[in-house]
Amino acid sequence: MENKAKGFSYVKTPYNYISYFKDGSWTEGVLREEDTLTIAATSTSLHYGQQAFEGLKAYRRKDGDINLFRVIDNAKRFQTSCERMMMPKVPLDIFIEAVKKTVLANHEFVPPYGTGATLYIRPFMIGVGNNLGLRPAPEYIFSVIVSPVEKYFEGPAKPVDMITSEIDRAAPFGTGHVKVGGNYAASLYAQVEARKKGFADTIFLDPKTHTKIEEVGAANFFAITKQKAYITPKSPSILNSITNRSLRYIARHMLNLDVEETDIFIDKLDHIDEAGACGTAAIVTPIGTIEHLGHIHKFKCHKEMGPVTKQLLDIITGIQVGDINDPSNWITVLKPNE
Ligand code: PLP
Ligand code: COI
Question: What does each C-alpha distance from 201 to 64, 194, 196, 216, 218 come to in angstroms?
């Protein structure tokens, strides 16, 4: 079986994890080889989007062992997403065990240290079982699939160009803060339009006033101001990014920067030197320009990654692969050869 990453596409891996929820309890999770599902055609996940997912990565260390990054935080966010979707919560220890088991079973697919490639881990839950009216599903499947991946955004570490969208991915007090498929389905139209025009992704604006930067289609937005503060939007409809939380910690405690969650108005960007997208898939991707209503704003660092963005990228990836000491119990080490 070919175990090399191919961009950010699914490469079949030997095992995935599956557990079923029926009559109020979860079955013992098992690893299986088949990577397809047979479910009722009337499943709520198919008709009403009753589902949730997570995204995290396993990183190869220099010594050959494997690091998971902040898995407990993904487990907690998954519970929040499932609760919002009226789905049963997976106990935190079961979620973590499922991730560990799946990664260890596929350890040969964790790409080598130093390549920048990683094993992407996608836990998800779907509502299944026969149902027609709008109501929570009678049964659920919790599964974890993995795939080796490379960069999410194409090209070298050069700043990418983005464009704002006139449509929204989420409602002001809808489901934007949780990781559920509906947000992504709603964002696809804008993403495809942006890509057709040559942009890397969409910048969504706040759904209430359309005046403030909200987030990127598949990542949070952050910026470094002229005064060297780390700023990032605050809004109830943004996904609570674990990468962004980590960058805020690094900026505050390791780089001594001011950190602020604040409004970032799309027509007032002159106080920003460096802009970027951050997330598990995006890692830290510099943004060079944003087009909004026909006007292109160029950030000061639009040709090369800015110096603070570079420091943030180096530190977070250093922590993730184990080259820099874990500052706050973020790392879980897995030993494939024991
Ligand atoms: N925002 C959106 C819409 C995302 O899809 C992601 C990716 O998970 C993020 C933000 C970043 O979140 P995290 O850093 O937890 O991966
Ligand atoms: C992630 O970064 O984990 C995401 O979910 C982004 C995804 C849309 C590829």
Answer: 34, 6, 10, 7, 8
